[in-house]
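Objective 1b: paired records.
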Amino acid sequence: QVQLAESGGGLVQAGGSLRLSCAASRSIGNMFMSWYRQPPGKQRELVAGISTSGMTNYADSVKGRFSISRDSAKNTVFLQMNNMKPDDTAVYYCYARWLGSGYWGQGTQVTVSS
């Protein structure tokens, strides 16, 4: 089992920045980690992912603005969000894939005002 705890959400103006953190209850060294988001009234969507070797992938809508990273020593994954837009408003979820199972955090609200 893996418990994930997101933090760092909040209210920010358009053009601003936020940094989300996802702390895992155990070592993330062998886990593929991702960030998803669910905008109001819409389905959950992938934002960014990072492999155990550090390879990353991003949704087209956030390329060049968001950056995912991992600190295996701290069992933590980060999502740096810059030049934010109102369309980035959503609940952001951390996701871990480990030994064939998936684990979700409870989510953190991000609101971008225009």
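Objective 1b, second protein:
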Amino acid sequence: QVQLVESGGGLVQPGGSLRLSCAASGIIVSNYFMGWYRQGPGIQRELVARITSYGTTAYEDSVKGRFTISRDNAKNTVYLQMNSLKPDDTAVYYCYAQGETVAFGQGTQVTVSS
């Protein structure tokens, strides 16, 4: 059974940074496409970043140059480093794993506000 547990969300001021973690069990993250979605208030869920099993990364346009997705194979964990945060980044962030099916974590709240 796939389990994804996110952590690292919280309240941060504009311009600040956070690092989200997604600890996986039941799968080996390096064998899967992994990534992060987010869903803000009244906004459709959008794909923020992903990393393929080959290590190729891709980002949604609004986060390019500010967010970095990475993984630690030894810890079986995927990270999302978020810098220069803006109020528009406020959302619940969900980790996902895509194999034959797609699994999501429970989400972690990120609030960017002064």
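DSSP finds no helices and eleven strands in the chain. The chain has a mean pLDDT of 96.
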